[in-house]
Amino acid sequence: MLKILGRDSSINVRKVLWTCAELGRDFAHESWGTGALTLDSPTFLALNPNGLVPVLQDDDFVLWESNTIIRYLASREGAEALYPTPPRERARVDQWLDWQATDLNRAWSYAFMALVRHSPAHDDRDAVARSLADWAKHMRIIERQLDKSGAFIAGETFSLADIAIALSVNRWFCTPQEHASLPALLAYFDRLAARPGFSAYCTPATP
Description:
The protein is α+β, with helices and mostly antiparallel strands and 207 residues long. Helices cover 54% and strands 8% of the residues.
């Protein structure tokens, strides 16, 4: 059986949990990063030397990096609807997955840590303002893409890219700030509501 290691408050762990829901895969879940399951323990560092979640164990195969894990799971199950095999279609999904993990995440991380997690290390008001402005810019990029596709991030059908992007968008909804009017984004979340795993791992009420 698949085993997923990591606290489910982590956006990156939720990517994996939501992907498993889409695939209809059973899994065992261990909440590393909480209580006695510390990420700096020798047991965990033997699995991921970075000390970060999630980690996937598939029998004796161990994998870390959330977007790599969800690509692996979709490929393992032959789920071409989530992760297509034609090179151009796959590249479009990969493009948005990579953008989420780099550009988008960097935009929102400081503001989220300051305004939601109340991290003492993120108390620079100017840095918060810059992060919020950058975050809003990236939300407008998503808005334009959804206007263009008319449905989902990488095109007309739901894919792995939507799991990663939607979880970051959810953080935007959950962060106390002024939210611009983005009708395509709201319609997008309405479409996602019917997806397996959405209510469990990606709802506006989820921190």
